[in-house]
């Protein structure tokens, strides 16, 4: 399946092609690289009016302000029922992955159904490789207790700021800077269990104590540890991927093994964003997700 995210008030994919994408975040239009956009741009002229351009130089890059434009260091947008702080970083990221909006809505819907059934029983959600917290906000808004884990201290601080500006400063969220594998090992020893797990493992990375993460070496252990922290009657699992180089079929097979002892169904496919003014879709990664059968 393909989950398509459409234009919103404060976000749209204006154009794409030539290895780049042109996006509008609020009133600021940004041009940055995207290796998936291997087709031709729809209209070269509209790119000249961007506020910010990201240019690669070797393994790094830099932002350049468009001619005659003024851009703040950060600004807020409303997206997916939440407020996000946009801050262009040296790694071309800006603090949000817009294609994940549909996943936030999906997990929020699953948790809302459960909270309505058991009003005094807060469900526990674990968000791994949680970045700036879109899924965390969605789970918290649905009434769940959330543990938000990321190896980047700045990303966790950014996520907390997003929670504050979204009116969720007092939500029951634990903000944790840690290596996800190390955290899961400790959670198993503590006996902590979760009803939902959301994860978006990168292809490569480092933990806060320089722990090495390589998806081809550590993915299997991650899944095994996640399986061990599941509650007796889990609600949902989301597994996202963008740079890992795997297929959505592979991710679906992983969840089939992980959830073999539970009654539920699996969906998998691609996440995409619809380009304004054309029928093109920008592919933005793969996913697989499991949900408990309604009979439970």
Walk me through the topology.
Elements: E1 2-5, E2 11-17, E3 20-25, E4 28-33, E5 52-57, E6 60-65, E7 75-79, E8 82-86, H1 101-117, E9 124-128, H2 134-141, E10 145-150, H3 153-165, E11 173-177, H4 180-190, E12 196-199, E13 204-206, E14 212-214, H5 215-228, E15 236-241, H6 248-258, E16 264-274, E17 281-292
Parallel strand pairs: 1-16, 4-5, 9-10, 9-12, 10-11, 12-15
Antiparallel strand pairs: 2-3, 3-4, 5-6, 7-8, 13-14, 15-17, 16-17
End-to-end C-alpha gap: 25 Å
For the biggest β-sheet, the strand order reads 1-16-17-15-12-9-10-11
Helix content: 25-40%
- The assigned structural class equals alpha/beta
Level-1 CATH class name of the largest domain: Alpha Beta
Radius of gyration: 19 Å
Q: Spans with pLDDT under 50 lasting ≥5 residues?
A: none
The general outline is: globular
- What do we call the CATH homologous superfamily of the largest domain? Vaccinia Virus protein VP39
The mean pLDDT is 94
Reported for the largest beta sheet, the result is:
8 strands, mixed
User: What is the total number of structural domains?
Assistant: 2
Describe the structure in your own words:
The chain has 296 residues and is of the alpha/beta class. The protein folds into 2 domains: 85 residues, Golgi alpha-mannosidase II (Immunoglobulin-like, Sandwich), CATH 2.60.40; 195 residues, 3-Layer(aba) Sandwich (Rossmann fold). It contains 6 helices and 17 strands. The protein has an 8-stranded mixed β-sheet with strand order 1-16-17-15-12-9-10-11, sandwiched between helices. A 5-stranded mixed β-sheet has the order 2-3-4-5-6, with no helix packed on it. Helix 1 packs parallel to helix 2. The two termini are 25 Å apart. The mean pLDDT is 94.
């Amino acid at each position: 399946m393909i989950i398509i995210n459409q234009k919103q008030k404060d976000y749209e994919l204006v154009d794409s092609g030539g290895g780049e994408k042109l996006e509008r975040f609020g009133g600021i239009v940004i041009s940055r690289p995207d290796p998936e956009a291997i087709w031709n741009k729809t209209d070269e002229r509209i790119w000249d009016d961007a506020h910010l351009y990201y240019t690669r130089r070797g393994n790094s890059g830099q932002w350049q302000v468009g001619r005659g434009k003024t851009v703040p260091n950060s600004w807020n947008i409303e997206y997916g029922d939440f407020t996000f702080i946009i801050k262009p970083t040296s790694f071309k990221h800006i603090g949000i992955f817009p294609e994940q909006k549909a996943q936030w809505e999906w997990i929020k819907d699953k948790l809302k159904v459960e909270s309505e059934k058991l009003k005094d029983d807060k469900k526990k959600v674990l968000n791994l490789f949680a970045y700036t917290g879109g899924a965390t906000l969605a789970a918290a808004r649905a009434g769940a207790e959330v543990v938000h884990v990321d190896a980047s201290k700045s990303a966790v601080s950014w996520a907390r700021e997003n929670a504050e500006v979204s009116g969720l400063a007092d939500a029951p969220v634990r903000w944790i800077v840690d290596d996800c594998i190390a955290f899961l090992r400790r959670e198993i020893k503590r006996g902590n269990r979760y009803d939902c797990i959301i994860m978006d493992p990168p292809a490569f990375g480092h933990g806060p104590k320089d722990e090495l993460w390589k998806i081809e070496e550590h993915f299997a252990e991650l899944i095994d540890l996640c399986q061990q922290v599941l509650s007796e009657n889990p609600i949902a699992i989301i597994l996202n991927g963008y740079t890992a180089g795997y297929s959505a079929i592979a991710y679906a097979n992983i969840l089939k093994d992980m959830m073999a002892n539970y009654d539920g169904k699996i969906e998998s496919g691609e996440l995409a964003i619809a380009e304004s003014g054309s029928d093109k879709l920008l592919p933005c990664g793969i996913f697989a997700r499991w949900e408990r059968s309604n009979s439970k």
